[in-house]
Amino acid sequence: MLNEADLQGLFVPLITPFDTEERLDLESYDRYLSSLLQHDIQGIVLNGTTGESPTVAWEEVGTLFKAARTCLNQRRLPIIVGSGTNSTAESVRRTEAAGHWGADAVLAVTPYYSRPSEEGIVEHFRRIASVGIPVVAYEVPSRTGVALSPEMMKRILDLDGVIGLKDASGGLSLAAELLPHCPKPILCGEDALLLDMLQLGAAGGMLASANVNTADFLNLLTQVTEGNISLAAETFDRLLPPIRLLFRESNPAPLKWLLARQGLLASDTLRCPMGPISAGLQEELVAIT
Ligand SMILES: O=C(O)C1=N[C@H](C(=O)O)C[C@H](O)C1
């Protein structure tokens, strides 16, 4: 299982390939994952936002987990499974199941929709963490509609079993507040802020856009670790235009389109209500790839 020290570097959230009838496409999954695994990444994330967690059934996540294990073969690469929902009991049940499958950690999103109190949110994370599988807390207010204060986030990070945070809070203030005092790793989950967050002391990133240009993301992390910030800035300048396009329309629609264009997926199909990207964005993506 993953510990705090392991939660650093580049973790790549996987997309979930579908055929044109919106059924899981495991052949594409294997081809796409095999290609990603040519890179020396530190882990993969199943059933994150990029994996279309709102429309993927939990049984299907089990199928994807098995397929990923088969594709990894003997390679020991951490697998983090998104097990967080807005129901505490369901999140606990999923975390237990992910533990049985052999997940190295789970990703638990701030509970959305119900608008729980601060105490309720901390209790939600406490119960998930008490399962005994390491928990990475995932703060993404643009999707959950709930923005946690640094004080709240500290309370969650103080819980036993919570090993770190994926910060997709949309700005730098949460990381800037937490990082100077936080003994647990914080990973950037806001792709366009990666370089800034690394310079503040983030331990790495969990980034949908690292599904493409993966080698450049890994170089960037090495350059920052080695203190070569001017080179890192040059690398990031090259990464930023594709990052911006990949988030111009809702992630993971542009990413899936690009992976299909690269021949890694048979189709760019998303599950309804998500749908294809615009013709205009397709043209822009072609122009920079
Ligand atoms: O799948 C994820 O996990 C990620 N989700 C974020 C989002 O789409 O909101 C972006 C991040 O790069 C990874």
Topology:
Elements: E1 9-13, H1 26-36, E2 43-46, H2 58-72, E3 79-82, H3 88-101, E4 105-109, H4 118-129, E5 135-139, H5 141-144, H6 150-157, E6 162-167, H7 173-178, E7 186-188, H8 194-200, E8 204-206, H9 214-225, H10 229-246, H11 253-261, H12 279-288
Parallel strand pairs: 1-2, 1-8, 2-3, 3-4, 4-5, 5-6, 6-7, 7-8
Bound molecules: the ligand O=C(O)C1=N[C@H](C(=O)O)C[C@H](O)C1.
Task: Describe the 3D structure.
The protein is an alpha/beta fold. The chain contains twelve helices and eight strands. The chain has an eight-stranded parallel beta barrel with strand order 1-2-3-4-5-6-7-8, surrounded by five helices. β2, α2 (58-72) and β3 (79-82) form a beta-alpha-beta unit. α3 packs parallel to α4 (118-129). It binds the ligand O=C(O)C1=N[C@H](C(=O)O)C[C@H](O)C1. The ligand O=C(O)C1=N[C@H](C(=O)O)C[C@H](O)C1 binds at residues 13, 45, 48-50, 140, 143, 168, 189, 191, 206-208, 251.
Count helical runs: 12
CATH architecture assignment name: Alpha-Beta Barrel
Question: SS-based structural class?
Answer: alpha/beta
Number of domains: 1
| Helix fraction by DSSP (H/I, runs of at least 4) | 40-55%
**Mean pLDDT across all residues, rounded?**
97
* Biggest sheet character: 8 strands, parallel, barrel
Strand content range: 5-15%
Enzyme class: lyase
Function: Catalyzes the condensation of (S)-aspartate-beta-semialdehyde [(S)-ASA] and pyruvate to 4-hydroxy-tetrahydrodipicolinate (HTPA).
GO molecular function, one term: 4-hydroxy-tetrahydrodipicolinate synthase activity
Protein name: 4-hydroxy-tetrahydrodipicolinate synthase
